[in-house]
Amino acid sequence: MTQRLVGRPAPDFAMETVSGDGKTFGKASLNDYKGKWLVLFFYPLDFTFVCPTEITALSSAAEEFKKLDTEILGVSVDSIHSHRAWINTPVADNGLGQLNFPLAADITKTVARDYGVLIEEEGVALRGLFIIDPEGELKYQVVNHNDVGRSVEETLRVLQALQSGGLCPMNWKPGDKHLVAQ
Questions:
Q1: Any bridge partners for residue 37, and if so which?
Q2: According to the lineage, what is the superkingdom (predicted)?
Q3: Helix/strand/coil (H, E, C) string of 23-54?
Q4: CA pair distance 98, 90, nearest whole angstrom
Q5: Which residues are catalytic?
Q6: pLDDT per residue over 94-151, tens digit each?
């Protein structure tokens, strides 16, 4: 049986990464993001069809996330070499081009499993997106079927609501009033 993640410490991770410009390999762990917000998102595979629409949209919005003291890390079960090849492939040829955040390789599928998004029988992750606060608490998760892309605008809205520190009603946006607990 799957256990809930929201409201608990985010599962720890350590993965190899490739920089968004495709030039350098590195490593990323949950501890690297301590003191910052993190949008950790999983996608099924490199060189697929829906994934580049999400990844490039998040990359285009990276400055908005940075203004909110938030880092972005993309994860799939592909290798760092596959990630690098995809980043270095032109967008016109189903590539990503340069990104404003790194991609991490979850070759062992451990991280996808720990976050509850691994499709065991296929060996790929569902489209899972997690927002982790600066103390490492998992505050938000959304998991989509792999045929449906996620919304950058909704991710930003939820992040801003979480950062607002108040009770946020449905469709809350920055500048809206918080609910008052009675």
A1: 70
A2: Bacteria
A3: CCEEEEEHHHHCCCEEEEEECCCCCCCCHHHH
A4: 9
A5: 51
A6: 899 999 999 999 999 999 999 999 999 999 999 999 999 999 999 999 999 999 999 9
CB contact at 8 A, 134 and 108:
no
Q: What are the phi and psi torsion angles at 156 (to 5°)?
A: -65, -40
On whether the CB atoms of residues 20 and 87 are closer than 8 A, the answer is yes
Mean pLDDT across 22-43: 97
Structure-block tokens of residue 71: 């880092």
**The two structure tokens encoding residue 139:** 């505050």
* String of DSSP letters for 78-129: S-HHHHHHHHTS-GGGT-----SS-EEE-TT-HHHHHTT-EETTTTEE-EEE
Half-sphere exposure of 79 (CA within 13 A, CB side): 3
> Which residues make Cβ contacts (< 8 Å) with residue 31, sequence separation at least 6?
12
